[in-house]
Amino acid sequence: MLKLQGIDHLVLRVIDLDAMTRFYVDVLGCSIERRQDEIGLVQLRAGHSLIDLVPVDGKLGRMGGAAPGAEGRNMDHFCLRVEPFDADSIRAHLAAHGVEAGKTESRYGAEGEGPSIYLSDPEGNVVELKGPPGPVQ
What is the domain range of residue 94? Predict the structure, then answer.
């Protein structure tokens, strides 16, 4: 039996590496952990996990096949745990960066039911920001 500890990393195949790096660093607060320009990889620290960005036309990105069409996506969404979770502050921060956020709703996640907000990154990937278990305030 495997004993999973959590998500180690996820990989997003991207069209505009610079815009996506700026979004995840400047808007969502990730930090650049490592860059490997020779293979087209930027690894961003998100708490205990990494978000890897690889250009679809780079060495690693081409290994994943063709980029999805305009109506297609690489995945449905991924969720980043946020604490403290102050919906008003999060919304103000996102708005200051020109990011439109969905309404705060209670959704079930790894720790149970709690507040979350959906938004989209510059390439249309849906990102969920999830707070700790508890009621939506």
Answer: 75-137
